[in-house]
Amino acid sequence: MGERMRPEVVVLLGGRIRAVRRERGLSVVGLAGLSGVSRRMLTQIELGQANPSVATVDRIAAALGTTFPALAGVLGEGPPDGVEVWSAPNGSWARLLQAVETGEVFVEMWKWHLVAGDRYRASPIGGAPASMAHVLRGRLRVRTGEGERYVGAGGSARIESTADHTFEAGSDAADFLWVVTMPRTTA
């Protein structure tokens, strides 16, 4: 499984990126220069025709002076169940429940459900401190460049955010919360 988003979230984010870009008086070329995302990719994202990674949307959001959670609509009084950002055909999903911004960082809380044998690979987050996963049900396998470990229900794991890491469900489904602290970047 890759780290691709649900189609309806892609359309939502594309529309919000376009609106914020226009509000800031930026052209697509200008935003491409600030974000490091190609003009072609930005156009496809704005039209809901490309399915970018969360890391790509984070770069675009930073260039616009905002954040992924703000674009997704989960800051402040967001939807009570969050926004289902990712899902897989066999029933796995991830919801961004809430986010809190401070001057230097913002904190995202995600709820995950991975079905047996399913996995999700997360990209590194430059400059981010470690994240935390807390298993609510089942058994979660966390693989990093340093190795792997298993976390059972009621257990928690600290995960370095500056390297690739993969979450995998074991022989049963795994439900877990993932708390990520992101550095506040400016374009």
Morphology call: globular
Spans with pLDDT under 50 lasting ≥5 residues?
none
Query: Number of DSSP strands?
Result: 10
What is the CATH class of the largest domain?
Mainly Beta
Number of domains: 2
Rg over CA atoms, rounded to whole Å, is 16 Å
Q: Termini separation (Å)?
A: 30 Å
SS element count, helices = 5
Provide a descriptive summary of the structure in words.
- Helix 2 crosses helix 4 (54-63).
- It contains five helices and ten strands; from the N terminus they run αααααββββββββββ.
- The protein has two domains: 7-68, Orthogonal Bundle (434 Repressor (Amino-terminal Domain)), CATH 1.10.260.40; 83-183, Jelly Rolls, CATH 2.60.120.
- The chain is of the alpha+beta class.
- Strand 2 and strand 3 form a beta hairpin.
- The longest helix is centred in the N-terminal third of the chain and has 17 residues, at 7-23.
- The strands form two sheets. Strands 1-2-3-10-5-8 form a six-stranded antiparallel β-sheet.
Secondary structure: elements and pairs:
Elements: H1 7-23, H2 28-35, H3 39-46, H4 54-63, H5 68-72, E1 83-87, E2 93-101, E3 105-114, E4 119-122, E5 131-137, E6 139-144, E7 147-152, E8 156-159, E9 165-169, E10 174-183
Antiparallel strand pairs: 1-2, 2-3, 3-10, 4-9, 5-8, 5-10, 6-7, 6-9
Helix pairs in contact: 2-4
